[in-house]
């Protein structure tokens, strides 16, 4: 069964990892210049580096839909630079998962495949998808919604190690982001992790830099550009998060629940 995942950031990659381990064939799409923060656990990096490994799974850049079959035959995940999902007609997947996490639907339709799954706010089960997956941390994280919508976005990051909004590094200005620190760096409050046109982006708490934008990415003021983990464990930089795996489990459940139509 072929599953097409729109988006290849950290949550989408957690979904892909879980489905790949469950023996589904997975193909992903993302931007030509991905804006992933947790780049060490994002299959989107295959677009930039021609291949990317997340835990024990390898993804490879597919220049066009014709290359997808050969990559799948090697047990790898093809990733296309195709934000408009123009490959949909050529691939004809049985399942489409919209995991762009844009907080709104950017064009996915319930008619795109026999089973269409929307991840996070912006989707309504029965209207633009067959099922939606809750992404809000808490008691309902990862649950499958077959009627209605996931909880609305609060713009407040989930609590990790006693910190929420302080964990997130945001671009101080509009311009071109310049990375100073690498993922995995141990940081202190006040350290400069990057700059935008010379304006410093400062760490708000102590911890390990779990994610940061790639150098040269255009940003707008306030855009998420980094993530500090106060737990300070470098190994987490290379592991898919508990949240991503939970959402991936929800997607897997939704596919199986709709398997009679596939």
Can you characterise this structure?
By secondary structure, the protein is of the alpha/beta class. It has two domains: 2-153 and 242-261, Rossmann fold, CATH 3.40.50; 165-230, RNA polymerase II/Efflux pump adaptor protein, barrel-sandwich hybrid domain (OB fold (Dihydrolipoamide Acetyltransferase, E2P)). 16% of the residues lie in helices and 27% in strands. It contains five helices and 17 strands. Helix 1 links the parallel strand 1 and strand 2 (25-30). The longest helix is centred in the C-terminal third of the chain and has 16 residues, at 242-257. The protein is globular and about 55 Å long. The relative contact order is 0.17. The mean pLDDT is 94.
Topology:
Layout: E1 2-6, H1 10-21, E2 25-30, H2 45-49, E3 51-54, E4 57-61, H3 68-73, E5 77-81, H4 88-91, E6 95-98, E7 115-119, E8 131-133, E9 144-145, E10 168-170, E11 175-179, E12 186-187, E13 192-196, E14 199-202, E15 207-212, E16 218-219, E17 224-229, H5 242-257
Parallel strand pairs: 1-2, 1-6, 2-5, 4-5, 6-7, 7-8
Antiparallel strand pairs: 3-4, 8-9, 10-17, 11-13, 11-16, 12-15, 13-14, 15-17
């Amino acid at each position: 069964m072929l599953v097409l995942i729109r988006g290849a950031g950290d949550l989408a990659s957690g979904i892909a990892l879980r489905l790949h381990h469950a023996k589904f064939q997975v193909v992903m799409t993302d931007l030509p210049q991905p804006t992933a923060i947790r780049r060490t656990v994002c299959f989107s990096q295959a677009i930039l580096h021609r291949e990317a490994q997340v835990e024990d799974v390898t993804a490879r850049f597919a220049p066009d839909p014709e290359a997808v079959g050969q990559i799948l035959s090697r047990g790898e995940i093809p990733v296309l630079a195709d934000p408009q999902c123009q490959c949909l007609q050529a691939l004809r997947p049985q399942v489409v998962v919209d995991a762009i996490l844009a907080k709104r639907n950017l064009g996915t339709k319930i008619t795109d495949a026999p089973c269409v799954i929307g991840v996070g706010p912006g989707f309504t089960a029965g209207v633009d998808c067959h099922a939606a997956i809750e992404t809000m941390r808490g008691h309902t994280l990862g649950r499958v919604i077959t009627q209605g919508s996931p909880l609305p976005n609060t713009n407040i990051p989930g609590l990790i190690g006693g910190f929420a909004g302080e964990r997130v590094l945001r671009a101080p200005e509009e311009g071109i982001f310049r990375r100073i620190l690498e993922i995995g760096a141990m940081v202190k409050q006040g350290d400069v992790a990057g700059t935008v046109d010379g304006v410093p982006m400062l760490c708000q708490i102590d911890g390990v830099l779990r994610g940061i934008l790639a150098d040269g990415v255009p940003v707008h003021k306030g855009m998420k550009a980094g993530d500090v983990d106060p737990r300070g464990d470098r190994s987490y930089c290379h592991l898919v998060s508990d949240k991503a795996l939970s959402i991936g489990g929800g997607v897997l459940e939704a596919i199986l629940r709709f398997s009679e139509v596939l």
